[in-house]
């Protein structure tokens, strides 16, 4: 680990190593959880999950990998998903603070149907099997809500909105907002994502969870009449679905800042900067959007 001040000075040797005792090579991993202030590591060599304190990286406790298929982390708790049987999947909820078991239960499954996903949001468990309804289970009260397959089809990705007790789903370039009663809260009027498979690198949710900023398909067409390879950056209100701002190549109000002495020789036009964007970030303090593209260039969009 290296402090930002040393990185800015290019003094990378000033950092110090972390998790030297752990073998984290694939399929091992390390996951930083800033919500709970914890770090989760998995050593495939030893078959053990370990939890560390994010403040000082001190070891807290370990979880033996005995048939654990996946671990989901939510505020205050961890969900352990074990290898399924034909008729159910064993689940265990642990306290994130000390690893003590809070609940052990079995979720019944349809035999012969693969599991599309199991997701956890606080006390809510979302389970979807192939060609079956979505199930939303309250693990504390055991209340079960089902949403028909016609209404809720399997998304390619989720983003949970912890501040609003809602969740976003991404499917076929579209975004939708749902509550945990299985009701559609918002669909978006002008927010068709660029990537079919929902690359969350090109999506940013503001801290207040009121805005979504994404790299989207543009209405513009190429000179030869074919579909344009240039996208747009769309900013939409999460609760209403309204597009409130857009950075598009055909916007006459967009201008390029003049070069300063010592600026790099590589310089992009606005259409070039909006072509094949691979990463997007919004600096809320400076009100600036940063985008990176497949050419390895970073562009700053400022009002």
UniProtKB/TrEMBL annotation:
SUPFAM superfamilies given in the database record: Tricorn protease domain 2 (SSF69322)
Coiled-coil regions, chain positions: none
Species of origin: Triticum turgidum subsp. durum (Durum wheat)
Name of this protein: Transducin/WD40 repeat-like superfamily protein
Superkingdom per UniProt: Eukaryota
Lineage: Eukaryota, Viridiplantae, Streptophyta, Embryophyta, Tracheophyta
């Amino acid at each position: 680990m290296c402090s930002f001040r040393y990185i800015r000075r290019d003094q990378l040797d000033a950092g110090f190593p972390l998790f030297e005792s752990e073998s984290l090579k694939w399929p091992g991993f390390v996951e930083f959880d800033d919500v709970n202030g914890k770090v989760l590591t998995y050593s495939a060599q030893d078959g053990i999950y370990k939890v560390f304190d994010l403040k000082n990286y001190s070891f807290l406790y370990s979880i033996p990998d005995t048939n654990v298929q996946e671990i989901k982390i939510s505020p205050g708790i961890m969900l352990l998903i074990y290898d399924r049987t034909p008729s159910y999947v064993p689940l265990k909820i642990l306290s994130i603070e000390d690893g003590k078991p809070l609940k052990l239960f079995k979720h019944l499954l349809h035999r012969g149907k693969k599991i599309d996903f199991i997701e956890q949001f606080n006390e809510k468990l979302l389970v979807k099997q192939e060609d079956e309804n979505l199930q939303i289970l309250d693990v504390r009260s055991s209340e079960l809500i089902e949403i028909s397959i016609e209404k809720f089809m399997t998304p390619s990705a989720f983003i949970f909105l912890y501040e609003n007790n809602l969740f976003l789903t991404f499917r076929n370039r579209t975004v939708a907002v749902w509550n945990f009663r299985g009701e559609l809260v918002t669909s978006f009027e002008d927010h068709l994502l660029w990537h079919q498979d929902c690359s969350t690198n090109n999506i940013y949710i503001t801290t207040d969870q009121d805005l979504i900023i994404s790299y989207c398909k543009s209405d513009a067409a190429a000179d030869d009449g074919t579909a344009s390879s240039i996208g747009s950056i769309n900013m939409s209100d999460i609760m209403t679905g309204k597009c409130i701002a857009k950075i598009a190549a055909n916007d006459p109000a967009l201008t390029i800042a003049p070069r300063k002495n010592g600026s790099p020789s590589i310089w992009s036009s606005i259409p070039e900067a909006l072509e094949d964007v691979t990463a997007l970030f919004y600096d809320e303090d400076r009100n600036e959007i940063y985008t990176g593209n497949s050419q390895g260039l970073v562009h700053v969009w400022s009002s």
